[in-house]
Design a protein that fits this description.
It is built from 9 helices and no strands. By secondary structure, it is mainly alpha-helical. It comes from Tumebacillus amylolyticus.
């Protein structure tokens, strides 16, 4: 028996050597890209729907994608999201307005304090124009205040002051006023004042 050799025609050779390996390579690359996160099937389906005869066979696209790649939600969900965003912005606005009212009241209080502090130096300047030395020295003013208080209360307040301050205040008082206040003070504090 004689074996006959089968010779491939040009068409068969092209199919087995060129087209079949290209199809296998394209299929393998498509599967790999699909696993890597590329939407190959969606792009192939979109391209196939552009062909007039094939578009009737394939089902319609499920949802159109937005420009940024996200699927568009139904209008009711978009409306709800917009309303939620508006509500959160209104809440933020109310919070900021309440903060602004608080800050305005703080500013008003600080302005009042500044005005009061500005008036106090003006009053001292007016008192110093009278020419009395007792109003310019703060220890003289404090000595007058403590002298007008009862000795018990003056002793309680003065025991909270430093020894040097008490000595300056005592230097502006008479001996009788000093004795009355020292008599009502704690003996340890009074001895510190007299010894230094």
């Amino acid at each position: 028996m004689q074996e006959s050799e089968h010779r491939y025609s040009g068409m068969e050779w092209t199919f087995y050597i060129v087209i079949l390996p290209m199809l296998f390579t394209a299929l393998l690359v498509g599967i790999i890209l699909q696993f890597l996160g590329w939407d190959i099937t969606g792009k192939i389906g979109h391209a196939a729907r552009a062909i007039p005869g094939v578009s009737k066979i394939l089902p319609a696209e499920p949802q159109e994608t937005a420009a940024n790649g996200e699927t568009q939600a139904d209008p009711a969900k978009q409306l709800q999201d917009a309303q939620d965003q508006i509500k959160s912005l209104e809440d933020t606005k109310k919070q900021l307005e309440s903060d602004m009212v608080k800050k305005d009241s703080e500013i008003t209080n600080l302005k009042k304090q500044i005005d009061d502090l500005k008036k106090k130096p003006d009053a001292k300047k007016d008192g110093s124009t009278t020419g009395t030395a007792s109003t310019t020295d703060p220890f003289v003013q404090q000595a007058q205040v403590y002298a007008q208080m009862s000795p018990t209360k003056a002793a309680a307040v003065m025991s909270q002051l430093s020894v040097t301050e008490v000595k300056h205040i005592f230097s502006k008082m008479t001996n009788e006023q000093q004795a009355a206040i020292l008599e009502k003070m704690d003996p340890a504090i009074a001895s510190k004042i007299l010894s230094s």
